[in-house]
Design a protein that fits this description.
Elements: E1 2-8, E2 15-22, H1 38-43, E3 49-52, E4 61-67, E5 82-88, E6 93-99, E7 104-105, E8 109-111, H2 113-120, H3 122-125
Antiparallel strand pairs: 1-4, 2-3, 2-5, 5-6, 6-7, 6-8
């Protein structure tokens, strides 16, 4: 199953380094389909964000297509399954909760560079595998 979303910058400044970030590292990875091959999946590679390294100016938009493996769709009842991370032209970092596959998007909020990096580094996210699974 695939869904397409038009993401529009409704802010007043351009954004860069747009990341699509998984909030459920225990069971959800994200990959750029254009760069993905079966060997990566068979190796069990972990990847928690995909970078869209482009400038998106105010009132500009881009198309985001999300495809789900074997119709296994992880949704968050109380929290967003994904977040859209971005940096503006002033060097500020932002996160925006995204409830995919639904089209619900919450208001963005500012984070520090350290908080932003923590969300996209795989070595930090691996710690979640050491904790008990609460299902």
């Amino acid at each position: 199953m695939c869904r397409e979303y038009t993401i529009k910058n409704v802010g007043k400044t351009p954004v860069y380094e747009i990341d699509i970030i998984s909030n459920f590292q225990k069971d959800t990875c994200v990959f750029n389909v254009d760069l993905l091959d079966e060997g990566i999946l068979e190796l069990g590679v972990l990847n928690y964000h995909v970078l869209y390294d482009r400038r998106v100016g105010p009132e500009e938009s881009f198309l985001l297509k999300l495809c789900y493996s074997k119709n296994k769709i992880r949704t968050g009842m109380l929290s967003a399954s994904l977040e859209i991370g971005m940096r503006d032209d002033r060097g500020n970092y932002w996160m925006q909760p995204f409830f995919a596959p639904d089209d619900k998007l919450y208001k963005s909020y500012g984070v520090s560079y350290k908080q932003y990096r923590k969300r996209i580094l795989s070595d930090i996210a691996i710690e979640c595998f050491k904790k008990p699974y609460l299902w």
